[in-house]
Write a structure and sequence with these properties.
The chain is an alpha/beta fold. The chain contains 24 helices and 18 strands. α21 links the parallel β16 and β17. Bound molecules: nicotinamide-adenine-dinucleotide and zinc ion.
Amino acid sequence: MSTTHTSKLLQNLWDQSHATSLDEPGRLLYRSNLLGSDKRITNFGGGNTSAKVSMPDPLSGKDTTVLWVKGSGGDVGTMKLDGFATLYQDKLNALRELYRGVDYEDEMVAYLPHCTFDLNPRASSIDTPLHAYVPKAHVDHMHPDAIIAIAASADGESLTKEIFGNDIGWLPWKRPGYELGLWLGKYCEDNPHARGVILGSHGLFTWADTAEDCYAVTLEIINQSISWLGKKTSNQMAFGKACHPVLTATRRQEVAQQLMPEIRGLISGEQYKVGHFDDSPAVLEFVCSEQMPGLAALGTSCPDHFLRTKIRPLIVSFDPASDDLDSTVNELPTALSQYRDEYAGYYERCKHADSPAMRDPNAVVYLVPGVGMITFAKDKSTARISAEFYTNAINVMRESSAVSTYCGLPEQEAFDIEYWLLEEAKLQRMPKSKSLAGRVAFVTGGAGGIGSATAQRFLSEGACVVLADIDANLLTETHLQLSELYGGDVVRKVLMDVTDENQVIQAFNDTAVEFGGVDILVSNAGIASSAAVEDTTLELWNKNMDILSTGYFLVSREAFKMLRRQSLGGAVVFIASKNALAASPGASAYCTAKAAEVHLARCLALEGASGGIRVNVVNPDAVLQGSKIWTGEWLQQRADAYGKDAEGLQAHYLERSLLKRAVLPEDVAEATYFLASDASAKSTGNIINVDAGNVQSFTR
Ligand SMILES: NC(=O)c1ccc[n+]([C@@H]2O[C@H](COP(=O)([O-])OP(=O)(O)OC[C@H]3O[C@@H](n4cnc5c(N)ncnc54)[C@H](O)[C@@H]3O)[C@@H](O)[C@H]2O)c1
Ligand SMILES: [Zn+2]
């Protein structure tokens, strides 16, 4: 997001011929997706839309009015029709009779399921009454930066009047819920010509009689604010004057590489955290500015913003002018524990008798002067989205402090949203986290057969994965496949040769910036070669040693450095080979290099134990399917060695195994997953054979 983000006007993208081909719920979905496709209109997951549609009742067949309103969870930009809750409007109206007043408004939520139309399983959101009681067919509720800038200004009400006259009204801050729904309904009835309302410290409500008009009104109102703010702020320095230099892009990355594993180690006590780094122009302008410390301390305004970013960010004490990173790193433990103490203080000051227990007191957003913004959350998407939200908050603070005085939400109000029992219930409904949630895995040879199967196994357990490989095409292909399956947030690729020291160091540095650190290394990149010893050239010998032995050393060393910095323990798994234990004819270079891997693993298990770093080995054998090794000359050489053709060779291996079964990449991946996960928390220095049984490789 750039500084100029709010200076451009929104375009009306409505396609009337497409819209007329849709039914009313279809048009509502179309409008919602259009609105949500532009982050200037609403932030990810923020806002909701509705339409009151006449439909036949499934029991009586008689027409009845149904409120279609975005349900709990999801995002208007990407939602599908099943993201809407549907409720009988007349039953919603009847709820008014049951309302006992604002002190009891939360109990109204329990009545909403009773109003469900057509057994729709989508849960209604807390915002449902805000749509139900506006007596208009179509209602949009958005969180546009350009409107929140007004909504979060000290004199927001008079600015609203100045910009919009009588078109748009003002309602002071009120936590979303039943009472606010009644306020909105009353406002609309008292002001039949108004086209919407700005909610103090929150966002925008707009309404109209048709889907098309509602979309147009929403855009028009936001554009009006964008233009007004643009005129007011065109000649101003944002955030006072700059008081820190912006470091070069390279240096910013370096600082982030150093800081992120340190922070991650200090905040992952209760739950592993994944990091995200953002040094976009809007962020840099803010973190280098004179007003940053004061504004950051005020906290964010829109409830969505602080639910994602915590009430306020942590400012890392780093002076880009002197660039003394060591002192910053030394001060981190104190700074982070001070933040936790302050958060605990906020919890204690604001809690009620029935408040849920204090949640993780660590900061989500870390602002680093001259460098950018680091965010940490339970998974990559949440960390990335938290950064997006704080960027929204920066935009709001910039515009608001240019035209007025920016106000954060009062502490107690923020607390009441953060620890709202209804919010807690939503958290309790979330699925249990997966076994590798928050973990970061680095897989060498990640584009190959066993490597990609392992990556997939880890991703399915919630890990973030870096695929490192020397084969650019295969890497791109594997990366694409896995991103399609698990989403682009959780998988990264890095083109890297395990024998190149600098490339390995760089790849781990990149991992630190992409995800915040590393927890699991799978050293798997490999080749196979075959030659009688008298025909083994020094070159062939060295190649095996370089990739299989030295390569395993280099990636382990870099992983160890990062694991030690985090102090969270870790798991290293070597994919060696049956041939590490069993001599095989005509493959002395390969077998010897594989044997070296096993012994390296044992040495590292010894060294890593004190830091909780476990090192174990998986020994596969004859994994023909999916393996690139088995498509090249190795296949031919092995087939020749046993006097078979390709198919005969597969049968030969199967027959040779004790269990008479073919070994698949997924089988190797399963053993690797076991050794990488907490299921094997008490195993180190071990070997698991995945070779369908081979007496030669029984360990002793
Ligand atoms: N497939 C088997 O039967 C078998 C048996 C025993 C051991 N292994 C071991 O399993 C590991 C994975 O093998 P696979 O069967 O998946 O083979 P594969 O060829 O499908 O995968 C190996 C990957 O390593 C990559 N690679 C090779 N040299 C590299 C380098 N210098 N830097 C970075 N990446 C490099 C390749 O590009 C490839 O993507 C290897 O270490 C291999 O020795 C395989
Ligand atoms: Zn809202």
